[in-house]
Amino acid sequence: MEQPEIKVNHIETKSVMTKSNTPIGGYSVNPYVGCPHACKYCYASFMKRFTGHTEEWGTFMDVKDWPEIKNPKKYAGQKVIIGTVTDGYNPLEKTYKNTRRLLEELKDSGADILICTKSDLVLRDLDLLKEINENSRLTVSWSINTLDALYQR
Ligand code: SF4
Hints:
Elements: E1 7-12, E2 17-19, E3 27-29, E4 32-33, H1 47-51, E5 60-65, E6 79-82, H2 93-96, H3 98-106, E7 112-117, H4 126-135, E8 137-142
The structure holds iron/sulfur cluster.
C-alpha cells in the first residue's frame, strides 16, 4: 500500500513532560504530535482538536522542540510513558531522532520508563536502552496489529 505524504511542521513546546490525568499517574511523553502509522482504530486522533489540525490523522506530524530537561532526577520513581498519542519510533524518527534525544535526557533520571511502539526502529537505540536499564526501570511494549479476524479472539 502506498504511504500518504506526511506534512511535517516544527513546533516549540515549553516542556515535553506532560503530567498524566490517567489513573496510572506519572507522565505522558510524546516527542511528536500526530502519527504516520495512521492505525484505523487510533484513539489518539482526538489530538487534532487540541492542536488545530484539520488534516486527516496520519498525514501530518509536528516535530516538537523542547528546552532540555534540566533536572531529570525529579522524575525518579515516577512512571513515564513514552508514546501515549504517537509512536515515538514512527518512520520520521529515523530523521528527527526526537525520541532518542528524550531518552538521552532521561537516561539517568531513575524514572520507571515505558515505551509503547509498533516499530522495530526501537532496536536502533538498543545501546541507550541498555544503559537506561542499568539506572532506571525500563519496559518496551511492542505491539502488532492485524485486521485478520482469526487473531481477534
Ligand atoms: S501507533 Fe498508536 S498513536 Fe500511532 S496511529 Fe497507531 S494507535 Fe495511533
